[in-house]
Amino acid sequence: MRRLDQPRERVRSVPPPSESKLAPLFGRADLVDAFAIRLPPRATSDIEALARAVLSHPPRWLRGLMGVRDATMGALGVKTSSQIGRQARRQGKAQIDFFPVLMRLDDELVVGEDDRHLDFRASILRRPERGGAPAELVAITVVHCHNRLGRLYLATIEPFHVQVVRSNLQRAADRGWPLT
Question: Which phi and psi (to 5°) does residue 10 adopt?
Fold first, then answer.
C-alpha cells in the first residue's frame, strides 16, 4: 500500500509504444490509445501479476456498465462478456477476468477478442527503468471496426473506455502493486 507521505502516482496519456507487440495493428485502427503509470522500485516484474492487478478488480460501477453493455449488445448478436469468458475456457485459454489471454511475454501481456462488429486487443506492457526514469506500466488498446455496428458501438463506449482504463490503472496503483 502507498504510504500517506508518498506522492500519488498519476495515470497519463502516452504515445502508443512502438515496442508493443500491438504496434503492427496501430496503422489502420479505429482506436489506438495508451496510458501509463510509474511503478515503484520494488514492484514485481511479473507481467501476469501486474496485468491481473490492473484487470481483475473492476469497480462496481464498471460491472454495472458491463451489464448494460452485455444486455444491449447481446440483443444485437454481439458476444457478451460471459460468452467471451465461456468460449475462452472451452478453448483452454488463460483468462484475466473474462478477457482471453492471447499472448504472454516477459514484459507484455495481450488480451482480446474478435467479433462480427469489431476486433479489440488490449496490452499491459512493462517498460523497465531507463536512464534514471522509473519503470512504468502502459495499458494499450487497439480496435478495428468491421461495420456500422462496430463504429456506432465504438463511438458510444469510447468516452467510457478512457475512464475505465485510467481508473483501472489508478486503482491498481492505489491498492499497491505486487512486490518482488
Answer: -120, 145
